[in-house]
Amino acid sequence: MRIHLICDQKWRDLPSNVALKLYLERDGFRVSIASLKDSFSLLPVLRPDAVVFNHMFGTSHPELARKIRAAGAKVIVLPTEGAARPELEPVVLGDFSDFSVIDLYLSWSDYVAEQLRQRNTVPADGIKTTGFYRFDFHVPPLNETTESRAAFCSKYRLDPKRSTVTWTTQYNYAHVTRDGPHWEKFQREFIDFGGKDCFAKIDVDFREIPEILRKSRDAAVRAFCEVTPLFPDVQFILKPHPAEDKEFYTSRFSSSNVTVVPNELIWNVLNATDLLLHRQCTTAVEAWTRGLPTIEMAMYRDKAFTWPAIEEGSFAAESASDLAKFIAQGLRDRDVPESMKAIRSAYIAKHYHAADGRRTKAAAEAISEFMRTKHEKSPSFLPLAKSLGGVSRAVKNGIRYWIDVPSGVPLREDLSLRLKGRRSSSPSSKNITRRDVAICEADVRPFLVEG
Predict the structure, then answer these.
(1) Where does a domain end: 293, 325, 351?
(2) Does the pLDDT of residue 427 top 60, yes or no?
(3) What is the CATH number of the domain that holds 75?
(4) What is the pTM of this model?
C-alpha cells in the first residue's frame, strides 16, 4: 500500500516526516513526501491509498479530502499545530471546518482527543493519541541525527565555549499592513480558518492583529537591541519564524554578537543554546524538554494575546531591564526553580503527551494498524486528475517530481543547469524535493527506535 505525507515546513517538519516515512516503510508501505502545494497536483500520479495531512483547517483541505475519499483513499491527520493558544482552540477542534472527512486523527494529547470525541465529527475509533512527534529530535535516539553544538557554531563562526542566548521570534502577521500587498490574503485566510470568529469572542477585531503583533515585535526588538551590547561576551542567535518577514531581522542586526539564522532546524539551534528568548512559542516547550531557562519577551501585552498556561513556564521580561536581569540570572544559574519545572511538566503532559523519543514510531504504528484493518480498495484518481487540470498536467508534475525539479523553477532552466553539471535549488521552506528527502533519510535511518 502507498501512503503520501504532506510536509508543511522544510526547516521544521521534514526530519519528522522522514522518520515517519522510514518507520512506515519498515512495515511494508511505500511512502512519498511532498510539500503541501506540490502534493495536490501529484496525487493522481502517486495514487496513494492514504494521504496524511498536516491539518484540516479552513475550506481547501476538507475540499481536497473529500476528493481523496471519493477516489477510495483514506484521509489521516497528523497535526503540525496541535496545542493552540486558548482563543484558537476551537480551530484545532474543528469548529470552523469539516472534520467528518477525517478517517484517522493522530492527536498530540489525550486532552484534544477527548474534546474531539465529544464533538462526534471524527469516528471515535479513528482518534488516537500518539503525541508530538517533533519532540523525538530533542531526546535519544533521534537527537543523534542533529547538528552538534560545535558543528553549528563552526558554521556561523561562533565559539562553542561561550554562552549563547537564542531568540526565536513568532510575529507571523507583523509585516501585514492595511495598504500593503498582503492585506487581502491575510483577511481571506484568517476568516477562512475561523480566526475572525475566535477573536470576536474576546472582543478583538481580527484586523487589528497585525498591528498588535507589530507593536509586540517592535517593543521586543527595542529591548533586545538595548540589552545585547550589555553582554559583549555572550553570543546571541536570532531565529525568525518561517512565516515571518526575515528581511526585517537580517537588515537590522549586524552587531558583532548577534547572528541571524533564518533557515535552521530548531533542534540544531537549541543544541547551541544556553538560554532561550521567545513569545508564547512552541520552541519554548521544546527548550523545556532540555531543561533550558526560557524568557518571555513580554514587553508589550494585549488581551488578544494572553496565554498564562505557557507564560508561567518562563521568566517574564516586561522591560529591557527585566530582560538583562533574567539573562544574567539564567546564564549564571543554568536552571529554573522547582516550581517552574513542575508547571512545565504538567503543561507538556496535558498538551504533548510525552517526550520519550518514541512519538513518531507511535504514529507509524497507529497508521499501520489503521490501514491494515480499514483499507478496502485500490483508489482511482482519474477524476481528481481531471479536476486538477487534466491528465497531461498531472503527468508533467509527476516528471518534475521524479527528476527533482523544485517548484517555481522552469523545466528548461533546470535541464540547462544539469547539462552544466549544476542543480536547481530553492531556499524556500515550502519547497521540498525527493533529493531533500533522500539526504534527510541518510541522516535519520541509523537512529530509528528498534523494537
Answers:
(1) 351
(2) no
(3) 3.40.50.2300
(4) 0.93
